[in-house]
Design brief:
This protein is α/β, with parallel strands linked by helices. Strands 2-1-4-3 form a four-stranded mixed β-sheet, covered by helices on one side. The protein has two domains: about 130 residues, Potassium Channel Kv1.1, Chain A; about 140 residues, no CATH class. It is built from eight helices and eight strands; from the N terminus they run ββαββαααααββααββ. α2 packs across α3, α3 packs across α4 and α6 crosses α8. It starts with a strand and ends with a strand.
Length: about 280
């Protein structure tokens, strides 16, 4: 981890942020903790700092509200999601010595005080300064690469090696939510008679498990649909195959209700076509 960043462990949830972000709040408790200044005795039992080479500050607080505090420090805007209690956020602001800041915001009628939506992802990336060490864009990119790399290393590469040993020159992968199986699909897919594998995504996109919840899988599936080019490039890089294309394919499938009645639904899945040699 960069020496220019600090990790907060809040109720078991970790957050990483640039140390320089706190320079605008020199009188706050968080600034003192980040700079390893001694805090008052009233806080000593609740705020502890790990003295190891990796600076980790442990806080006994609500992590959801604390994430709002960190976003306020980053963007100078107080944005509270609907599922976070505003009262808890205000209490933390005052406890961390940011009470004066929130009072000034409330008095400023033109200020963006408390909103129901956080800044957009692109806005967050664009507003984070590259001089802060590990940028938010870098962190997001690394997270994307790690998730896709795990899927390729643990699932796709073993399948590729198995089919290569069988003498297959090409293979098609279909990445679907885990409650959709071949017999449910009514759409005629390309290459369905060629060598192919079905990868059923669980809530963790790096594994293949049984789960009855489709909603839990859509996040990972949409994630891969949005990162098709990255997925393609990493497959080629890690496997040295001749060619790889990643497409979004819409399929229709049947579902059976608890009363034995069938209905049809549709969703997008990921199709990966690989030419091995």
């Amino acid at each position: 981890m960069s020496k220019k960043t600090v990790i907060f462990n809040v109720g078991g949830t970790t957050f990483e942020i640039s140390k320089d972000s706190f320079n605008a709040y020199p009188n706050s408790i968080l600034y003192k903790l980040v700079n390893k200044s001694s805090s008052s005795s009233s806080f000593s039992s609740r705020f502890t700092s790990n003295k190891s080479s990796t600076q980790t500050i442990c806080l006994d607080h609500n992590p959801f509200a604390f994430s709002v505090i960190l976003d306020y420090i980053r963007y100078k805007r107080l944005c509270v999601p609907k599922d976070v209690a505003r009262e808890i956020v205000e209490l933390q602001l005052r406890e961390f010595g940011l009470g004066d800041d929130i009072n000034l915001l409330i008095q400023d009628k033109n200020a963006s005080i408390i909103e129901d939506a956080l800044p957009s992802y692109e806005q967050a990336l664009n507003e984070f300064s590259a001089s802060d060490g590990v940028t938010l864009r870098d962190a997001a990119t690394l997270a994307v690469l790690r998730r896709i790399d795990t899927l390729i290393s643990d699932v796709i590469l073993p399948y590729l090696k198995r089919h290569a040993k069988r003498g297959h020159h090409q293979i098609t992968f279909y990445l679907t939510p885990n409650n959709i199986i071949t017999k449910n699909i009514t759409t005629e897919l390309e290459h369905i008679n060629d060598p192919h594998e079905w990868i059923r995504l669980s809530t963790d996109s790096s594994s293949v498990e049984k789960d009855d919840s489709l909603e839990n899988d859509l996040t990972d599936l949409q994630f891969l649909l949005q990162k098709r080019d990255t997925l393609r490039d990493l497959i080629i890089s890690k496997s040295d195959v001749k060619e790889c294309t990643v497409n979004k394919v819409e399929i229709s499938y049947r579902i059976e209700s608890e009363f034995g009645l069938f209905s049809s639904k549709s969703c997008d899945i990921v199709q990966i076509f690989v030419i091995i040699v």
